[in-house]
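It would be a great kindness if you could assist me with a short task in structural biology. The matter concerns a single protein, recorded as an amino acid sequence and a row of backbone structure tokens. Could you please explain, in whatever detail you think fit, how the structure tokens follow from the sequence? Thank you for your consideration; the sequence and its tokens are set out here:
___
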Amino acid sequence: MSRQNLDILCGPLAGVELISSDVFDTLLIRHPRALRSRVILGEQRFARLLGQRGLSVGVEELLQARLSAERCAYRALNVGGGIGEVRLTEIIGRQLDMLGLPKKLAETRIDIELAIEKMSLFANGALAMALRQQRQAGVRVIALSDTALSVDRLTELIEHFHGPGLIDKVYSSAECGESKRSGRLFSHVLSQEKLCVSRMLHIGDDELADHDVPHSMGIKTIHIPKGRLRLYVSKADGARAEALRRLKRQLRTPNYQMPDLSDKTSFGRNVFGPIVAHFCLMIWLYARQAESQSTALAFCARGGIGIREAFERLISRLSLPLSIRRENLLVSRLIAARVALEARSPAVLDELGREFANNTFAEVAAFVGGRTYDLPPAWNQRFNAASFFGILGTDVGQDLLADVTLQNSLFTRHLDTMFETCERIILCDTGLYGSTQRLLAAGLPNRNFETIQFARCNYKGLTEEHFPSVSGLVVEDNFYNPFKVETVVLRYWHIIESLFEPSVPSARQLWASGNGKIEANCGDIAYGKIDPAAGNLLLSGVLDYIDGVDNGTEILRDAPVAWTRLKQAIINPTPRDVNILGAGYRSIDFGRPESKNILNAAENNSIARQLQSVRSHLWREAAIARDFPRLKSALLPALELAHIMRGLSTRRQR
């Protein structure tokens, strides 16, 4: 605390009846020990305690569950508008639920958390002395914190260092359900204290939460920023702790050796099983935080149907509580594009321009409208997205617009039937860019859409303005990173799509049945109506794994080994891997009937021509392994290096 601010607090404060002090890094100062370091220490202690009670859970599994619970909770909170607050009791409770540990251990784990906090803090004696002087002068003093701790636990910490009598009342964002950063916690305090805003003075270290927000409300503030050296030392401590953790994880001997994977079912069970189960745990964590509002999970056709099957089986198998409404939604990029098209959103022009660069206006009209139109010769010109709104406005574009409007009215009826009373609609899909999210949000701004998906990646090179509402629960990266094993799916994304998609067509046309129910060309996709694993041996293996798992500890132990095996299969595939993971023909979609083979047929061309053709394959590593069996030991590492250099170059330019 600067001398100048001490002088302000040590003298009379004209018109001030209430002083509120932030707690962490203000009333209590942290030693330069990072949050990651403190959490790791806590899980180490918790693991030892569990071992003493005959419960075998490793530090890494405890840490993974804790970090996942925190990350998903804060992400869901922020995407949902910051309404409410994340509570430590909820984070710990979800951690225990995931790992199959008794709920009664929650308070024990929080006791450990408090013990480590007491080791990591020390009293701000100068501030405490100034506050005591103000209390003696008749000014009321309270503590105010954005924290996951309850009021009782926060009070325990304050009194541990300052003793009783310093603070008249403690307010915790976790308990009040409001935060300083939103300003609502200050409003809550003013209401509870029955105080005029001009009579309050707030002290804290965070520029946004402790100065900008209260100052904009008319509250007097004293900003006490943390020193840069302390910030640097804390970051270094966190980096050290994370590096040691990663090293230990790499050196740790796996609990089991990957069995021989001779077919799709065994590969699905042993490799995709733990990976998908972990993804489903992340969905559950996100949904648990979001369900405090009027929220629904909408599993998007088609990929969401397979995800829903795995998700429902997992939460049932592990008895994970979840009351949020869940429905399968008749939606596709085409359906979402129509919604944005009627709203004349520029977002739809980006998508159409990318998808139909080699088509004519007439062909785009047929794909978007779902039928052939009698159009003048001008519509046979090559499609230009920038001119599309203008040509739609002509008389000849009215039939197309009428069909689009009809389809949109059917879709909104379908949406209202599913989620009429829901404030938040969480779309659940495979990924990558989140086009459905972007288009629906642009076309239906009165709805609150957000998206959770397996991976998020801007492979299209378009705007990322919608990314704050799109969460890649497993991967959020624009390029493959050899140091992040999960990003290997970006090298062969089609295997993730084919894993979850059932053998039904994409939703293209909607209609109302005799009883008023909205139906589509893909058939009835409601949960339980179709078997998404029919003919999909990889997904059958995934479901076998989920049906046999006992708790999340197994999943978190199995997943790292599974990811290593998947990376090996994608970037350096054997002939058996190519046979197992070959996804065959993939639909181009967006209203088009065409499909593209993952691996084109091998050609008897020169080596130079064969090398040039590698770029035409959707799984390039498999093409190299198939067409160049003798050279693959050199070509595959070269391709790996090229991916690495591209990623480094792109990051350097940003």
Summary: The chain is about 50% helix and 10% strand. The first helix runs from residue 3 to 10. The longest strand covers residues 449-456. The CA atoms of residues 113 and 633 lie 50 Å apart.
